[in-house]
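step: validate -> pass
step: tokenize input -> pass
step: predict -> running
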Amino acid sequence: MPDGAELTFRADYFDILAERRIIYGFEMSLGGTRISASLATIELLPEAGRTRMRFTEQLAFLGTAEAMAARIAGTETGFDRLVEILTRETASVH
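step: predict -> pass
step: emit ->
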């Protein structure tokens, strides 16, 4: 983190069905204080010879509104990076 605070992520995986679904629960802490707890599902759906990923998250947020906005922005940034990597890595396949 820019201010030097430690951000931690701890997860437990409840269900993994190869090439179909991952269900996991996780909590995030900032500077030793829990800021959120979530249950997330990733579904991998066949679509026109490709795969669509659907991410669903039930979030209990325990911090300030500003921290929640940063948390959501961080998740969006992570998915943007995933799209960039997958686009680059699969460009030569298609």
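step: describe -> Helices lie at 65-90.
step: cleanup -> pass
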